Amino acid sequence: MVQRTAEASVQRDACSEGGSNPVCPSGEASALRQDFFNDRQTLRCSVKKCPGELHAGKGDYSFRTGLETWVCSSCGHRGFRSREGVISLFRCGQEFKFSYGPSTHTITVVLSSAAVNLWSTHGVTDEQLAKMAAEWTLLCGNLKKPVTLGISSEEFADFYLYFCAD
After folding, report:
1. What separation in angstroms does the CA of 29 have from each of 38, 46, 122, 139?
2. Which residues are 56's β-sheet partners?
3. CA neighbor of 107 nearest in space, from 125, 86, 81
4. Strands (E), 3-66
5. What SS3 class is residue 3?
C-alpha cells in the first residue's frame, strides 16, 4: 500500500481574517450581529432582483397586531415589521417560536445544523440567526408559514442573499 499525501494551502486575504471581527461577504457583519431591522428608516426590498427600498407606510400601523407595513418604492411589495422587534417565546432544539407586538400569532423558525454552521462563520449565533429569519419573513410578508432554513431550501438562498449579497 502506497500512502499519498497532498500539500494544501489556504489563501488568505482581508475578507478571510478571523479573530474577533467576523466577516460577511458584503461587510455587514456588525449589522448582522445587531438588530438588523430595528432603527432603520429604509430597508432593501426582500423581493428577488428588486432594486427598490422599503419605507414605512404612513399611518399603516396596526395596534391589534403590533406590525407596521413597509412598502417598496419600485415594485410595490408590502412587508411587515414589528416596532418592538420579534420576541423569543421558546425553543426546542433547532425550532424557535417568536411573537410580535400584542398579537397572539407566532412565527416558527426551523434551522438546520448546516445553516447554523455556515452562519457561525459570520459570527452569528443560532439564536441571532433565528431572530433574523423571523424578522426577514415578516419583511417578506409572511405572517403564518413556518420558515425552514436548510441549506438546500430556496428560502435559505433568498435569506442568505438578502443579508450577504452586494
Report:
1. 16, 19, 7, 20
2. 70
3. 86
4. 42-44, 53-62
5. coil
- 128 vs 6: CA distance, rounded Å: 38
Measuring CA to CA, how many Å separate 72 from each of 68, 96, 154?
13, 28, 22
Q: How far apart are CA 122 and CA 40, in angstroms?
A: 21
CB 98 within 8 A of CB 86: yes
Instruction: Give me the residues paired with residue 107 across strands.
Output: 98
pLDDT tens digit sequence for 45-82: 888 888 888 888 766 777 777 788 888 888 888 888 88
145 contact partners, CB below 8 Å, separation of at least 6: 137
Measured CA to CA, the distance from residue 47 to residue 120 in angstroms comes to: 25
